[in-house]
Amino acid sequence: MDKLLNIAARLLMAQIFIIAGFGKLMGFSGTVGYFGSLGLPMPQIVAPLVILVELGGGLALLFGFKTRWVAAVLALFSIATAVIVHMNFADQAQMINFMKNLAMAGGLLLFVRHGAGSPSIDKPGT
């Protein structure tokens, strides 16, 4: 049962990053434009970095590769995204997204503490 829970936890946490990163990759010019509209500096450089963090980090988390480090990066990314993108608390949807990002960071911190578990690339299990 533990192995199934480990896989489910990684899948459920990773899927939001994988889907978001893939969407940004497929709509790259729109992603760059959106980042520019947020006032981010050099959006044409920031966009590939965000895609790498989301898509690459999500896949690494899913498969349990360098899980503690990846989870730490994704937790910091989630907090940064909350602060940069979702601080308009007058908009209830933005407030909910802000809290969602903080909740995701909390879940990711558990991976920082406990690792991927098995089965994973970090800890293959039998």
TrEMBL record:
Keyword Cell division attached: no
Localization per Swiss-Prot or TrEMBL: Cell membrane
Cell membrane is among the record's keywords: yes
Membrane topology category: Multi-pass membrane protein
InterPro entries per the UniProt record, alphabetical: DoxX (IPR032808), DoxX-like_oxidoreductase (IPR051907)
GO cellular component terms given for this protein: plasma membrane
Main location group: membrane
Keyword list, A-Z: Cell membrane, Membrane, Transmembrane, Transmembrane helix
Protein family: Belongs to the DoxX family.
Name under which the protein is recorded: Membrane protein
Higher taxonomy: Bacteria, Pseudomonadati, Pseudomonadota, Betaproteobacteria, Burkholderiales
